[in-house]
Design goal:
Elements: H1 2-31, H2 43-55, H3 71-87, H4 92-113, E1 120-124, H5 129-142, H6 146-149, H7 151-156, E2 159-164, H8 171-179, E3 186-189, H9 203-215, E4 219-226, H10 238-248, E5 251-255, H11 269-272, E6 279-282, H12 284-288, E7 295-299, H13 304-310, H14 317-320, H15 324-356, E8 362-364, E9 375-379, H16 403-424, E10 431-435, E11 439-444, H17 446-453, H18 457-489, E12 494-497, E13 506-510, H19 524-539, E14 546-550, E15 557-561, H20 570-620, H21 627-636, E16 646-649, E17 654-657, H22 659-664, H23 704-734, H24 747-770
Parallel strand pairs: 2-3, 2-4, 4-5, 5-6
Antiparallel strand pairs: 1-7, 6-7, 8-9, 9-11, 10-11, 12-13, 13-15, 14-15, 16-17
Length: about 775
């Protein structure tokens, strides 16, 4: 019995264990969604999933490029990542030899190509990571007890990192976060303000800052110089900075796009001085059009222990395999291929710079940097009587109060110009940026984009042609802005909205009767009026573009007027907007009041009809209301009762009798509806002439023959309209006094006269009917 009991308990425990395992599997499978359920997916399904995630829904974006055209050299680079994964599976000895060979070859080639002799290389994915490692190396080199004492050494003598004001945004914050240093350890060196480029570091002011920091007990540690700033591509005076760093024992690090020109045969002296610096960061990936290629930091240091502690060198084979994609790509391109790509990018920038110098109203910000592969330009308008060689203020008038406003206007126009050029010439790789002094500019940096996009010389010529085609639009719009503002401010019911980000002629808002000017919230009634106004303006088929959107500083709707490509009559435009908006507001009020007016009219009509029925009963008598007696009385003495009713005039909002309709068989004239308000400046247009075009009279821009022909056409139209009015007025005057037939005329003459009189009657009665 005990044995059977043990077996029964064992069977119960086994069944309970199986139940718990099944419940656990169900719970686990329910918590893990997607393709992990079951026994796994086959390779075809997994690759199909990756392809769908890469390309997405092609129906939503049919115009987007599916994948970048990377070329054969790009495939070599991508192959390096796959080979690196396979190579990592080798045994340790073979892996060590192979990775050492790859790292040493790549380092040697880069140092020879970019003229950095006896240097070491650190390959990293993040472009700023190399500089962070260099800062660690500088700290270990200057603070000998940093490994033992750590932060206490830095606290006693705080390190200082010097960065240019034109450095990449966020670089100083990144360094402090990576090094664990407080932000006061950063020192921003201003650029030149009087002499030299406004994007170059002020060397004299830097020396003053270094002396002040030394007097305060701080340690000048590292200086970051630019060989091609991130914004406009200017190069600092690296030779002078190197002398200053050697004098005070500061580590000099150089970065920038102009370092790519070190591979060319001719290099400017300012860039060539970078070969004497302590370290530099190169980005060969965008320069050569190689995807997924790491950035490289070249440096010079004799202590391998400090470089190992700083993270610049590593004993792990996986870290050395980072150079494999670049090792394969450099062998595929060869020295000639590398130099050719960098040289082609520099030629593109020089070609664009030489072409833009011949274009009016285009200012180039890198004219003194002949070797810079970056071209930065912007549209501007000179002051009347100013020297074109000076820094012209971008304003069409000389009013000092309008300079700031016109600066914002030019920024908006340059932003529009940059976006238009990016759409028209996508192979150019343009970018729009905002500079502190110059404002919004357009940048062309072929070293960062030409190898990837495949930019050619024809694309540069197309870019220049597009710039020239957009200049008339920009100049015309800028000239009409002030006139538009004055017209809007002088027109009742319109409010000028100053939106610095809108590149068009201007922004206007219609103030209706119930508009709360102090409120910034959404106005439903105003939005309805502006929506109708936008529809009416777009139906005019003019050359202007109209948009509706919220105001710059509130949620109220406004009408945005786009760019002007021709001479526009601003007065007619503003008046059309005011009149049309007023008509829409009146129509909306009429529709809103229609229900109440109709309801009151129906009630009044019922009361009058009931009163008319009572009056009819009194007139006919009581006997006529009895069925049999009334019929007999009506047969002997019928009653001549007129049909009476009521008609409701929606225009006048009043009730009228229908007696005139039943007696004379015509509708009553009632109250004459009010005329639709029209502009006072309405003018005659020639056939085919679009709205808002300035009148051709007095225009000096057209030829004499064409102007005479247009003026004659306008005069004929005015004479014809004036003649019709005169004939109509004369007919009204002759109508009351018809001419009597002569007394002594022969019968034939009387018949002819009568026939002529009959023929003339419709002409005499026609103005009466029209009236």
């Amino acid at each position: 019995m005990g044995k059977n009991l043990k077996e029964a308990m064992k069977m119960l425990e086994d069944s309970q264990r199986r139940t718990e395992e099944e419940n656990g599997k169900k719970l686990l499978s329910g918590d893990i969604p997607g393709p992990l359920q079951g026994s796994g997916q086959d390779m075809v399904s997994i690759l199909q999933l990756v392809q769908n995630l890469m390309h997405g829904d092609e129906d939503e974006q049919p115009q987007s490029t599916r994948i970048q055209n990377i070329g054969e050299q790009g495939h070599i680079s991508l192959l390096g990542h796959s080979l690196g994964a396979y190579i990592s599976t080798l045994d340790k000895e073979k892996l060590r030899k192979l990775t050492t060979r790859i790292l040493s070859d790549t380092t040697l080639w880069l140092c020879r190509i970019f003229r950095y002799e006896n240097g070491c290389a650190y390959f990293h994915e993040e472009e700023r990571e190399g500089l962070a490692k260099i800062c660690r190396l500088a700290i270990h080199s200057r603070y000998e007890d940093f490994v033992v004492d750590g932060f206490n050494v830095l606290y006693n003598r705080k390190p200082v990192l010097y960065l240019s004001a034109a450095a990449r945004p966020g670089l100083g914050q990144y360094l402090c976060n990576q090094l664990g240093l407080p932000f006061p350890c950063l020192c921003r060196v201003p650029c030149n303000t009087v002499f030299g480029s406004q994007h170059q570091m002020d060397v004299a002011f830097l020396e003053k800052l270094i002396k002040d920091d030394i007097e305060r007990g701080k340690l000048p540690l590292l200086l970051v110089a630019n060989a091609g700033t991130a914004a406009v591509g200017h190069t600092d005076k690296i030779g002078r900075l190197k002398e200053l760093c050697e004098q005070y024992g500061i580590w000099l690090h150089v970065e920038g796009v102009n370092l790519a020109t070190l591979a060319l045969g001719y290099v400017s002296s300012s860039v060539l001085a970078a070969t004497k610096c302590d370290s530099m960061t190169l980005t060969p990936g965008p320069w050569l059009g190689l995807p997924a290629v790491p950035a490289v930091t070249l440096y010079k240091h004799d202590d391998p222990a400090l470089t190992l502690v700083s993270g610049l060198t590593s004993n792990k084979p996986a870290d050395k395999l980072r150079a494999l994609p670049l090792w394969l790509s450099l062998q595929y391109l060869g020295l000639d291929g590398i130099v050719e790509r960098i040289k082609h990018a520099c030629q593109l920038s020089q070609r664009l710079q030489e072409s833009l110098k011949k274009v009016n109203h285009i200012k180039i910000l890198v004219e003194d940097e002949l070797s810079s592969p970056v071209v930065v330009f912007r549209f501007f308008q000179e002051l009347p009587g100013s020297d074109p060689g000076l820094n012209a203020i971008p304003a069409p008038s000389a009013a000092a109060s309008a300079v700031g406003r016109e600066r914002h206007s030019c920024d908006a126009l340059n932003r529009w110009l940059g976006e238009q050029l990016k759409q028209l010439v996508p192979m150019s790789g343009l970018t729009v940026m905002d500079l502190e002094v110059e404002g919004t500019c357009v940048r062309f940096s072929p070293l960062m984009t030409a190898a990837v996009l495949g930019t050619r010389g024809e694309d540069v010529d197309q870019l220049v042609a597009c710039v020239q085609s957009k200049l008339p639009v920009l100049t015309c719009t800028l000239q009409l802005r002030e006139e538009f503002k004055q017209e809007v401010e002088a027109t009742a019911g319109l409010l000028y909205v100053d939106d610095p980000n809108w590149p068009g002629i201007g922004v206007v808002r219609y103030e209706h009767a119930n508009d709360d000017k102090s409120s910034l919230k959404l106005d439903p009634e105003g939005e309805k009026i502006h929506a109708g106004l936008l529809k009416k303006l777009n139906e005019l088929e003019s050359d202007l573009t109209f948009k509706m959107g919220p105001e710059y500083k509130s949620m109220k709707s406004c009408i945005y007027i786009g760019m002007a490509s021709d001479d526009i009559d601003i007065s007619e435009l503003v008046e059309t907007i005011a009149v049309t908006a007023r008509e829409i507001e009146e129509d909306s009020r009429l529709l809103e009041n229609m229900t109440e007016v109709v309801r009151k009219g129906i009630q009044e009509a019922q009361v009058q009809l009931q009163k008319a029925n009572e009056e009819r009963l009194l007139e006919e008598g009581v006997l006529r209301q009895i069925p049999v007696v009334g019929s007999v009385l009506n047969w002997f003495s019928p009653v001549q009762a007129s049909q009476k009713g009521r008609t409701f005039n929606l225009t006048a909002g009043s009730l009228e009798s229908t007696e005139h309709t039943y007696v004379y068989k015509v509708q009553g004239s009632g109250v004459t509806p009010p005329q639709t308000p029209t502009g006072t400046r309405t003018k005659q247009r020639l056939p085919g002439q679009k709205p808002f075009k300035r009148s051709l009279r007095g225009s000096d821009a057209i030829s004499e023959t064409s102007s005479v022909g247009h003026i004659e056409d306008l005069e004929k139209m005015e004479q014809s309209s004036g003649g019709q009015e005169a004939s109509e007025a004369n007919s009204h005057e002759r109508h009351p006094e018809a001419p009597a037939p002569p007394e002594a005329e022969p019968p034939g003459a009387l018949q002819d006269g009568a026939q002529g009189l009959q023929d003339d009657r419709p002409q005499v009665e026609e103005p009466e009917s029209l009236r």
